[in-house]
Design brief:
Largest sheet: 7 strands, antiparallel
Number of strands: 22
Radius of gyration: 22 Å
C-alpha cells in the first residue's frame, strides 16, 4: 500500500476525497529523496551502498529505489541486450549481475534518456529487489520490497468483543484483542492464543512482511479445506508491532467476525500478510 496503489490518494480506488478535482495525470510518477542508508548484497558482495537513494512511487506499483550510478558497483555488472519501453519513463537499458558463478540476468535497469516530463533519473539505476540476497536500511534487513514511508502500521490494545466463527462454529472469542491498523488494509484483530477455542494444527506455510516480520500459519482442525492456513501469527514481529507477538489472526475473508455484536462485512481484498 502506497501513495499510488489501492486506496492511496493517487491509487486506483482512493479511500478519501480531495477538496476539489485532481487535475494531474492518470498515471502518477513521484520521486523523492530517502534519508536512509540503503545497501544490497549479492553472493556476499555489497553491490549497492547509498546514502543518496531516491524512492519512486508509481501508479499501480510498489515503491522502487533508484540509486546514483556512482553508488553501484558496476564492476560486477554486464551490459545486457534486453530493453523495455515504459510510456511514462522511456526506454530502459539493462545489466546482469555476475559474482563468481552466480548470475542474476537483467537484474539492473536504468533510463539513460528518460522522456520529457519524467522524473530526473537519467543518472540513476534500479535493482530488482528479489534478485539480491539481502537488503538493508541502516543496519536492519528489509524483506519483500522497499518500505514505504507513507505506509503506517499501528497495533492498538482494545477491549472490543470479537467473535470468530466458520459455518456457525465458534473458533475464537475475546474481549482483549490487539487491533492492527495498516494503511490501505482492513483492520485485523490479533487474539490471545488462549482465547482461540478451535484446535489448531501447525502448517509449513510462512510469509514475510516488510512492516511486521515473518508469519507462521496454522490450520483449523476439522474444518476441511476451508480451515487450511486460516490463522497466522508473528512469533517475533518487528519492534514497531511487538504487541501482536504470538497472537492469532484469522483470515477475515474466509470467516465470520462479529465485533461488539455487529457482523463485519468480509473484506473484498484477497490480501495475505506477505
Amino acid at each position: 500500500m502506497t501513495l499510488t496503489i489501492g486506496t492511496g490518494p493517487f491509487g486506483q480506488t482512493p479511500g478519501g476525497v480531495f477538496n476539489g478535482r485532481w487535475e494531474g495525470p492518470a498515471h502518477v510518477l513521484y520521486v523523492e529523496d530517502s534519508p536512509r542508508h540503503v545497501r544490497g548484497v549479492f553472493a556476499g558482495v555489497t553491490v549497492v551502498d547509498s546514502r543518496r537513494t531516491k524512492l519512486m512511487h508509481e501508479t499501480g506499483l510498489l515503491p522502487v529505489w533508484y540509486f546514483p550510478r556512482a553508488d553501484v558497483d558496476f564492476g560486477v555488472l554486464e551490459p545486457s541486450a534486453h530493453t523495455t519501453h515504459c510510456p511514462f519513463k522511456g526506454d530502459a537499458s539493462y545489466w546482469s549481475l555476475q559474482v563468481g558463478d552466480r548470475v542474476a540476468e537483467d537484474a539492473v535497469w536504468g533510463y539513460p534518456d528518460p522522456l520529457e516530463g519524467a522524473p530526473p533519473i537519467a543518472e540513476h539505476v534500479a535493482l530488482h529487489f528479489a534478485a539480491l540476497d539481502a537488503w538493508f536500511e541502516e543496519d536492519e534487513e528489509v524483506f519483500v520490497h522497499p518500505r514505504d514511508p507513507y505506509h503506517r502500521v499501528d497495533a492498538l490494545a482494545s477491549s472490543r468483543h470479537v467473535r470468530v466463527s466458520l459455518d456457525g462454529r465458534v473458533l475464537a472469542e475475546s474481549a482483549r484483542p490487539v487491533v492492527l491498523f495498516e494503511t490501505g488494509l482492513p483492520p485485523r484483530c490479533y487474539l490471545p492464543r488462549e482465547d482461540v477455542t478451535a484446535d489448531l494444527e501447525p502448517s509449513e506455510t510462512t510469509s514475510r512482511c516488510p512492516y511486521k516480520g515473518t508469519a507462521g500459519y496454522w490450520s483449523v482442525d476439522g474444518a476441511g479445506a476451508g480451515g487450511v492456513d486460516l490463522v497466522w501469527t508473528y512469533p517475533e514481529p518487528l519492534p514497531g508491532v511487538g504487541a501482536i507477538a504470538g497472537r492469532a489472526c484469522f483470515h477475515d475473508e474466509r470467516v465470520d467476525v462479529d465485533v461488539d455484536g455487529v457482523r463485519q462485512e468480509r473484506p473484498r481484498t484477497r490480501w495475505s500478510p506477505r
